[in-house]
Design brief:
Blueprint: H1 5-22, H2 27-32, H3 35-64, H4 69-95, H5 99-104, H6 106-138
Helix pairs in contact: 1-3, 1-6, 3-4, 4-6
C-alpha cells in the first residue's frame, strides 16, 4: 500500500461530491430550492477541509523535508500554490453559505461553482499525477 493511497481515496470522494453538486446546477431549480445544493456543498467543503488539513500537517511537511531536492522542491511548490487555491475556495464557500444566498443569485452560484469544480479537479489531477506519483516513487527513500 502506497503512502499516498489514503490521499488518493480522499480525492476520489471529493470528485464524487463535486460531480453530485455539478448535477444540481440548474438555475431554475436553485431559484426555487437550494437546500440540497447547499447540503452537498457543505459536505464537499467539510471533506476538502479535512483533506487539506491532513496534507498540510502530514504529507507536505514530510515531503518538504525529503532528502531528494526534487521531491522537496515539488512539495514546497504544491504547498504554496494550495494556499491561494484554498483561499479562493474558502471565499467561494463563504459567499454561498446558505440556501437563501444561492436562491437569490442562482446564475452566479452556477458560474462560480463550475469555476471552483474546475479548479479543484485540475488540482486533484496534478497532485495525483505529479506530487503523489513522485512521493510514491521515492517511498522508502527517507519518506
Amino acid at each position: 500500500m502506497a503512502r499516498t493511497d489514503k490521499f488518493r481515496l480522499q480525492h476520489n470522494e471529493l470528485i464524487a461530491l463535486a460531480r453530485e453538486l455539478q448535477g444540481m446546477l440548474d438555475e431554475e431549480a436553485l431559484s426555487k430550492d437550494a437546500t440540497a445544493a447547499r447540503h452537498c456543498l457543505g459536505s464537499l467543503m467539510g471533506k476538502l477541509t479535512m483533506h487539506l488539513s491532513t496534507e498540510d500537517k502530514v504529507l507536505y511537511p514530510e515531503l518538504e523535508a525529503h532528502k531528494d531536492p526534487a521531491v522537496a522542491s515539488l512539495a514546497r511548490r504544491f504547498a504554496s500554490e494550495m494556499k491561494t487555491t484554498a483561499a479562493t475556495i474558502g471565499s467561494y464557500n463563504g459567499r454561498w453559505g446558505t440556501p437563501s444566498a444561492i436562491k437569490a443569485k442562482p446564475h452566479e452560484f452556477v458560474k462560480e461553482t463550475r469555476d471552483v469544480i474546475k479548479i479543484l479537479s485540475d488540482r486533484i489531477k496534478r497532485e495525483n499525477q505529479e506530487l503523489y506519483a513522485m512521493a510514491d516513487r521515492s517511498e522508502g527513500k527517507a519518506f
